[in-house]
Every structure is written in structure tokens, then in C-alpha cells.
Amino acid sequence: MDGYQSSLNSTSTPTQLPLNTTVHINATIKPFSVFDGCEHYIEAILFDLTFQTINVIVGIPANLLVIAILIHNQKEASTSDIFLGCLAFMDAYFGVMTPLTFFNLYLWHSKEVWSAIKFSFGVKDTSGPLFLSCICLDRFVAVLFPIMFGQLKHVKYRVFLTVVVFCLTIAYSTAKMVGGLPNFEKVFTGEILATFTWMMVCNTSILWALKKSRGPSKDEMHPMKKKAFKMVLSILCIIVFNYLPLVILFPFEDHYSPDVFRCYVQPAGFAFLNISSTIQPLVYLSRLDKLPFFPEACIKKFSSCFSTENKKSGPTQNPTA
């Protein structure tokens, strides 16, 4: 993820002369800037930073709550919980880095801090799509190949996939932090296209299989299958909202001018990916029947207030709609 790819997420470095150059230089060396040429085109960067601010205020507490709930419910853990926990941890880490981004943009202007921030961008770029792909794979095998799923239910297979994702994430993030690699942005474009396609195929296949399992009446789907249907549908909505803008915009990089792509297209596209750090935990929490650590009276009061608001807004709706 690169909130501001060339400006804030750029993997490129300013052009430097070879160490053995003997050319006489009259020009002053351009000072380091995290905006990297987008100083006069910061609207899309601020748009991305606004979403990242939401991640700090809402996303960090939500992701920490998800981790706490997963630990609390580990005796009744599902096979996907290890992926959910790692995803929540990575999203919380990315949110924690956002205040450093603000300080470095407007106060420190430190190249070293910027390197650490770029590493966190790489973590967000890679870990989110890959862990979501693992969740989709787990659900895909469970629904369409239940016998095979029973044979592969042991936690060691999930641990192996988790280690692979962490290795890929560290490799990508380190390369992004170092910068200077030719056409490195195309690596992310290829990754996002591949994972998006995979997740769409998985989730649509699962939804189709669950829908076909209904009886003559639409209400005859088994309660567990209904729950799985809602979960997969929510993941599909997340995928479309957070990843589709990148899939639409990034493959056409060559059709934009370099400044437009770096300063507008990339930050705006990454903003939708970044806000997934808040949307994903909130969607998970909304699917829970009961929230641990919260007094039941508070939950009931909140639910009653919400239902009261719905009743108040009900009469204003068109009855024929």
C-alpha cells in the first residue's frame, strides 16, 4: 500500500551521480522531500491521509478488539481465525504508523523515518490481499470440497500458509523501503490483479454453491450455511469496495502522465485499500452474535437505541418502495 506512491509511497529514489564521477557540479543538491515532486499536487495525498486518520481513531481499537476476541474464543476457533488474527495485527500496525507519517510530513522531514513508513506501506500492500486470499481459500475448500477440507483441517497447514505470507510481505516491504528497483510498481499491480481475481472466483463460487443448497423454500437454508453465506457476502463487498478501484486504475499506468499517476491516481487508489484497515474489523465485529468484554446491558441498550431510530425513520419511507 502506498498512501502516496510517488510522493509518499514511492519506491523510487532521487537521481544520484556515480561515486566515481568527476563532473563539476554548480547546481545545489535538491533536499530530501517525502512528497517527491508532488508538493503542488497534494489533494489526493490529503484524501488518503484522511482515510488513514480514520484508521487511527476507529481502526486501531477495532483491530485490537478483534485480536482480543479471537484469543478469548480460541477454544471454539474456526480454521480461518489465524488468518483473521494476523490480518488484524497487520492492520493495527499500519494504523500505528500513521501518526509518524504526519509528523514526518510536516515536522521531521526525516529520510530514515520515511524508510520505516515505506516499509509499513509494503506491509499493507501485501499482507491484506494475501491474508484475505487465504481466508477465501479456506472457505472455498470447506464449502466446495468438504472431504478434502476434513483432511486438511489441521492447524499446521494454516501456520505454513501464514509463514509464507509473512515471508512474502517482508520481502516486498524491504524492497519497497530500499527503493530504486525498476518497474517495481508493476509487482504490486500484478499482485493485486491476481489476488482480486482469485478472491472474486472463490467467493462467487461459494455463494453459488450455498445458494444451490437451498430447498424448495428460500428459508430452508441451514442456519450454519446462512451464516457462512452472510460472511462470504460481506467479504465479497469488502473486496469490491477496497480493491476494485486499484484493479481499474493501476493497469493503465502508461496512459497517465507520470505526475498524474504518482500524485493523483496512486494516492486515490491506495486510499480505498488503506481504509480496509477499518472496514475489515468492523465487518467482522458486526457478524458476531455476542461481543465479549462488553456488559450485556450496554449492548442491549445500544441495540434498542438503534432499533428505535429505525422505527422513527420507518414512516418517512415510501410504503410502495
Terminal CA distance: 41 Å
Q: Count up the domains.
A: 1
State mean pLDDT (0 to 100 scale).
80
**Strands, count:** 0
Low-confidence stretches: 1-6, 10-27, 309-313, 315-321
CATH architecture annotation name: Up-down Bundle
- Quick one: overall form? globular
Can you tell me the CATH superfamily? Rhodopsin 7-helix transmembrane proteins
What percent of residues are in strands? under 5%
How would you describe this protein?
- The structure is a single chain.
- The protein is mostly helical and 321 residues long.
- The protein contains ten helices and no strands.
- The chain has a single domain, classed as Rhodopsin 7-helix transmembrane proteins (Rhopdopsin 7-helix transmembrane proteins, Up-down Bundle).
- It is globular, with a radius of gyration of 23 Å.
Properties at a glance:
disordered C terminus; 321 residues; mainly alpha; single chain; Rhopdopsin 7-helix transmembrane proteins; globular
